[in-house]
UniProtKB/TrEMBL annotation:
The lineage of its organism: Bacteria, Pseudomonadati, Pseudomonadota, Gammaproteobacteria, Oceanospirillales. Pathway: Cofactor biosynthesis; ubiquinone biosynthesis. This is Ubiquinone biosynthesis O-methyltransferase. InterPro entries: SAM-dependent_MTases_sf, UbiG_MeTrfase. O-methyltransferase that catalyzes the 2 O-methylation steps in the ubiquinone biosynthetic pathway. It comes from Halomonas sp. RT37. NCBIfam families: UbiG (TIGR01983). The keyword Methyltransferase applies. SUPFAM superfamilies: S-adenosyl-L-methionine-dependent methyltransferases. Belongs to the methyltransferase superfamily. UbiG/COQ3 family. GO terms for molecular function: 2-polyprenyl-6-hydroxyphenol methylase activity; 3-demethylubiquinol 3-O-methyltransferase activity; polyprenyldihydroxybenzoate methyltransferase activity.
Length: 241
């Protein structure tokens, strides 16, 4: 099945092609996805501490090669990962099989998943994806539909301001070479206030947000509740009534 066969797909074909071309290198900790490997323990612990992954029914939207999906499954969650890059899903399935990690991967858009299984999941994660799609607000609405009442949504994306342009694009792509050039489009970066408004409009309550900060001297990442100027995470909860 091709992307064109998925009628409600909110997808940029150039973005799919970009990540598909790198699919074989998803699990190379020194390759193009090195930053994701570096931040995964931080974002995993942040999410787990707030939602309690063990035993929870979790959907990972835009799962790519499965770095977060597999980590959540290892924490005891029942994970379904979805993506529209078939090459990435193939790598994710192969790696999970090789590691003996039990989880499910599906080629389906989040909008179609919301039509198929509304209010199925206790936790939905959508990390480092919103800035790569034409209509990120529609993704948030679909994620909210997939949550059970009282369920929690974990989001992450990049703020839109001069500092984020300097660090996430000029610094990360052109100076430090942390990610391939052209990975990000500044116009698609999302301010926390914008994301919070979309969440509230979708019936979600903002519980917490935290910045993900890169320290160039130590070359390490850390979480900071006081600095959401570049990368940030947000935890929301679906209203129960």
């Amino acid at each position: 099945m091709s992307i064109s066969d998925t009628p409600s797909a909110n997808v940029d074909h150039n973005e799919i092609d970009k990540f598909s071309a790198l699919a074989e290198r998803w699990w190379d900790p020194e390759g193009e996805f090195k930053p994701l490997h570096a931040i995964n323990p931080l974002r995993l612990d942040f999410i787990d501490a707030r939602v309690g992954l063990a035993g929870r029914e979790v959907l990972d939207v835009g799962c790519g090669g499965g770095i977060l999906s597999e980590a959540m499954a290892r924490r005891g969650a029942r994970v379904t990962g979805i993506d529209l890059a078939e090459a990435s899903l193939a790598v994710a399935r192969q790696h999970a099989d090789e590691q003996g990690v039990a989880l499910e991967y599906r080629y389906i858009s989040v909008e179609d998943m919301a039509e198929e299984a509304p209010e199925r999941f206790e936790v939905v994660t959508c990390l480092e994806m919103l800035e790569h799609v034409p209509d990120p607000e529609a993704i948030v609405r679909a994620c909210a539909r997939l949550l059970k009442p009282g369920g929690q949504l974990a989001l992450s994306t990049i703020n839109r301001n001069p500092k984020s342009y300097a660090l996430a694009i000029l610094g990360a792509e052109y100076v430090l070479g942390m990610v391939p050039r052209g990975t990000h489009d500044y116009a698609r970066f999302i301010r926390p206030a914008e994301l919070a408004r979309w969440c509230r409009d979708a019936g979600l309550e903002i519980e917490e947000q935290s910045g993900l900060v890169y320290h160039p001297i130590t070359r390490r990442f850390s979480l900071s509740a006081n600095d959401v100027s570049v990368n940030y995470l947000m935890i929301c909860r679906k209203e129960t009534a």
